[in-house]
Automatic annotation (TrEMBL):
Keywords: Glycosyltransferase, Golgi apparatus, Signal, Signal-anchor, Transferase, Transmembrane. This is Exostosin GT47 domain-containing protein. The keyword Transferase applies. It is a single-pass type II membrane protein. Residues 435-456 are annotated as: Disordered. GO terms for molecular function: glycosyltransferase activity. One of its GO terms (cellular component) is Golgi membrane. Pfam families: Exostosin_GT47.
Length: 456
């Protein structure tokens, strides 16, 4: 029989530990929020970071090497990249394709992590998918094998401790992919294979896993969009407040700004119409040429212009969404959208769809391209008081779409949730809904589109 005093002391210690874990009101602050980080062999994540030299599979396309940061330097600061200048405390030359290792680092910092997957509400798979895809999209010899992207991961998850995956048929698993879902959704039987895409999202073994991507497809039951990473990653609350104050008081002499490639399209489209109008309305429109990746690792090239503009034009490019949208929000430049897929139907966890009219302007692209509607004329008609209200709302949204620096100060974490926090909250809600439908025998409800219009 155990020694009674020792048993009593043991019980007291356990009760004290339980009290520390509980909230002030006695509730469990981790209830419904426990995440298990799946252990993966290094070949699925950290080993991929070694392939950053030009003689391996570079993080940047060799054809764009002249305008890109050196690949290995982009790995600095856990994927945030090198600082824009030595005295910078919040600005980095961030390569958006390194969102996966950065997100992994932030998940490791979270509380409510569970060592035992059976006690977890969600399972995070720290797979660096975009980096693992590079051989398939950059090496012509592997183009025909791009349908196999992710197959080794799927086989590992099914083989190693298979009960973790089978317990909820993968519905409680999630991972992050640095890129558009369209880049990973090529049908596996496509012939010939399309350059630059893989079939990761088409693997049947991963069909129930939630993918966090910077752009989702039209039917996002499998993935959900999270903000494109910008170059602004504050580590303290004073740094965040100082930047927002600068954006708030900035003198905005330019009516509208376009930041992007300036090559004229061969067919009529919204980007061509914008460039044509800006050429004719130099009094109202400014253009920052980002052709050839000039702006990719140089935020100073466009952020100063955004601070001086009232409206930032956000037309779709190769895909509907743009990183520029989030740069504009952080700069307090009211975004102008030309189709709903550009943001309203993408980022519901971070930018509530019901509030878009409070902080953005929508001009249908068809009315501009084929209807003769002038963008500058439309924006000039917006009352100045309304512009100020929209700018105020934009800057209120800014903390929700930025990725604060890892290891940031407690006061900044407590001040509000950033893009990572809101993404994790959203995926936990999605997983709870799906697993509840499983437990209640309602399989038809598992893939129901959830309402993202959540009040802030």
């Amino acid at each position: 029989m155990a020694n009674p005093p020792f048993l009593f002391l043991f019980l007291l210690l356990n009760l004290a530990a339980a009290a520390r874990r509980a909230g002030a009101d006695g509730s469990d602050p981790c209830a419904g929020r426990r995440i298990h980080i799946r252990h993966l062999p290094p070949r699925f994540n950290t080993d991929l970071l070694r392939h950053c030299g030009a003689d391996a599979f570079p993080l940047t396309d060799p054809s764009a090497a002249a305008t890109s940061a050196p690949p290995c330097e982009s790995l600095a600061n856990h994927g945030l990249g090198p600082r824009t200048h030595p005295r910078s405390r919040s600005w980095y030359r961030t390569d958006p394709r390194l969102l996966e290792p950065f997100f992994h680092r932030r998940i490791l910092e979270r509380g409510c992590l569970a060592d035992d997957p059976a006690r977890a509400d969600a399972v995070f798979v720290p797979y660096y998918a975009a980096l693992d895809a590079l051989p398939y999209v950059l090496d012509p010899a592997l183009l025909d094998a791009s349908a196999r992207h992710g197959a080794e991961l799927a086989a590992f998850l099914a083989r190693d401790q298979p009960r973790i995956l089978s317990r909820r048929h993968g519905h409680d698993h999630f991972l992050v992919v640095s890129g558009s879902a369209w880049d990973y959704a090529q049908p596996p039987d496509t012939e010939p294979r399309l350059w630059g895409t893989t079939s990761l999202l088409r693997l049947p073994e991963l069909a129930n896993v939630t993918f966090l991507t910077v752009e989702s497809r039209i039917w996002p039951w499998q993935e959900h969009a999270i903000p494109h990473p910008t170059s602004f990653h504050p580590a303290t609350l004073p740094h965040l407040r100082a930047w927002l104050a600068r954006a708030r008081r900035s003198r905005r002499a330019t009516l509208m700004l376009f930041t992007g490639g300036v090559s004229r399209p061969s067919r009529p489209n919204i980007r061509g119409s914008i460039l044509a109008e800006c050429a004719n309305r130099t009094d109202a429109c400014a253009v920052v040429d980002c052709s050839g990746g000039k702006c990719s690792h140089d935020p100073g090239r466009y952020m100063r212009a955004m601070l001086g503009a009232k409206f930032c034009l956000e037309p779709p490019g190769d895909t509907p969404t743009r990183r520029s949208t989030f740069d504009a929000i952080i700069a307090g430049c009211v975004p102008v959208f030309f189709e709903d897929l550009a943001a309203r139907r993408q980022y519901g966890w971070h930018l509530p769809p019901a509030r878009f009219d409070e902080f953005s302007v929508h001009i249908p692209k068809e009315s501009v391209v084929f209807g003769g509607v002038g963008i500058a004329e439309t924006l000039e008609a917006v009352p100045e008081a309304e512009v100020r209200r929209m700018r105020k709302r934009v800057l209120e949204m800014a903390p929700r779409v930025l990725y604060r620096r890892h290891g940031s100060a407690a006061e900044l974490r407590e001040a509000g949730k950033d893009a990572v926090d809101l993404a994790v909250d959203g995926v936990l809600r999605r997983i709870r809904r799906r697993t509840r439908a499983q437990e209640e025998g309602r399989p038809e409800s598992i893939y129901t589109m959830e309402d993202d219009s959540l009040e802030m």
